[in-house]
Amino acid sequence: MTRHIIASPRDGGEDRSDHVHLHARLLKLTDALFEQLLLEARIDRNLFAPRSVALAVRAQEVAELAQFDTELCRRLMRLLDERAPWTSASTCNRSDLAGDTSELPPATAKPAGRTPTPTGIASAEVRERLAGMKREVAATLKMRPRALEQLVARIGGCDPVPELLADRLVGLRGSEAAAHVLSVSDEQPATTDGDADRAALHTVLFAVLPYVSDWRDEVAACCARGERQPGVVELRYRSDTIAEAVMAGWVGRRCWFEYRAGSEPYGVGAVQIPATAQTALFTSEQHLLEGVVKQLMYQLGVGGLTSHEQRTRVLAALRRRDQRTGPERMRYYFLFRDAASPEDPGVLWHLARTTLHGESGLPGLVLIRMQGQLSDAEADLEECIAAILKPRTPSRT
User: Fold this and answer.
1) How many CB atoms lie within 10 A of CB 94?
2) What is the DSSP string of 27-83?
3) How far apart are CA 147 and CA 194, in angstroms?
4) Cα(64)–Cα(356) distance, rounded to whole angstroms?
5) What pLDDT is attached to residue 153?
6) What gap in Å lies between CA 272 and CA 322, rounded to an integer?
7) Beta bridge mates, 367
8) Which pLDDT belongs to residue 97?
9) Closest by CA position to 106, among listed 39, 10, 199, 173
10) In 3D, which of 321, 338, 339 has the Cα closest to residue 330?
């Protein structure tokens, strides 16, 4: 499992994920020193609960922000390392500094000409997504305590509390989280309660999957985009399953997968053109645009007598679905797979961008370039999701 471990000179390289380690260190600060740290780290104070709220709550909020912002996490850890006395019990008394900042360590001078790292908008978006996911997980598992206890026992590392389990799951790789859920799901009996527990486990996985450690940075980068930036995403993966997870995290919904034999699980919002048929689309700009429009007409359930009417109605349907809120929001996307290109993929990718995002194209459609080769972890993830989506075989009595 790939994790970013940040070790300070005092912790001996303790094997803990970075944001959990950061949270533990933040809890050792006084209220005044905590506020000074936010100032030193150039973090927008308005992103967090007011100073009147307990330090434990504010520290958790900062740790969650840093979980999706690697640079911020490193900056906070570096500041804590540079000011080792901040976390030393012998330096000050917590009650003495609670309302007095006169004895705070001096601020480090900022390098001339350096612009502070903007963490506000993007990080707030990610925090909102993460908070929504935790609420969904909690609401689902509070109704299924047996499933909660079984999954916690399987994974380990936390108490049977839904929010803690969500934190534990997002610290895993996607293939690991899916394997754990599938294993516990398979253990459920063929009863009404067993079916309900199984459905709850699947809901939890599809809510958590957009935020796991593998593609967390990609989701954060998508959330950091401005409204006027083109909907273009380049991923270092091959799997359509991962593309759906990233899109779900960007929009703030859980994953919605479809599956058919002979293909990997793919997102409902994906333009469902098989990889084997992708090459034929690129014979010309007109062929590409017409092929995508016709497929979207079918998926969106719209019609039109002429090509102009068809494109216009597809654009309207894309807008309306993207403007909805909550789990009903859907941003449709076209997957370009480098591995399926017989020619230079860069040339065909340029054609896709200029055609589908041109003046006569489909600007409301997100374009995703899948640049990787299929890895073992991606194949494992696909197999687990496919097993979850397949109809269950009735048990023999």
Assistant:
1) 14
2) TTS-HHHHHHHHHHTT--GGGS--TTS-HHHHHHHHHHHHHT-HHHHHHHHHHHHHT
3) 9
4) 37
5) 95
6) 18
7) 232, 334
8) 31
9) 39
10) 321
Residue 223 pLDDT more than 70?
yes
Q: Tokens at residue 393, please?
A: 């075989």
Where on the phi/psi map is residue 42: left (φ > 0), alpha (ψ -120 to 50), or beta? left
Q: Mind listing the pLDDT tens digit for each residue in 28-72? A: 887 777 887 887 787 777 677 777 777 887 888 888 888 877 888
pLDDT for position 203: 96
The 10 Å Cβ neighbour count of residue 266 is: 22
- 350: its two tokens: 């340029």
CA–CA dist 380, 316 (Å, integer): 37
At residue 267, the 3 state secondary structure works out as strand
β-bridge partners, 333: 270, 366
pLDDT of residue 317 exceeding 50 = yes
| Six token digits for residue 148 | 């909660």
Which residue's entry shows tokens 């008394």?
93
Alpha helix segments (H runs only) across the chain = 18-26, 31-40, 55-67, 70-82, 94-97, 120-142, 145-155, 162-170, 174-186, 192-208, 216-223, 240-251, 278-281, 285-300, 307-323, 345-356, 376-389
> Nearest-CA neighbor of 312 among 363, 270, 271, 269?
363
Q: Given CA atoms 162, 166, 167, 168 in this order, what sign does their dihedral have?
A: positive
Tokens, residue 101: 């900042």
Q: Whole-angstrom Cα distance, residue 300 to residue 293?
A: 10
3-class secondary structure, 136: helix
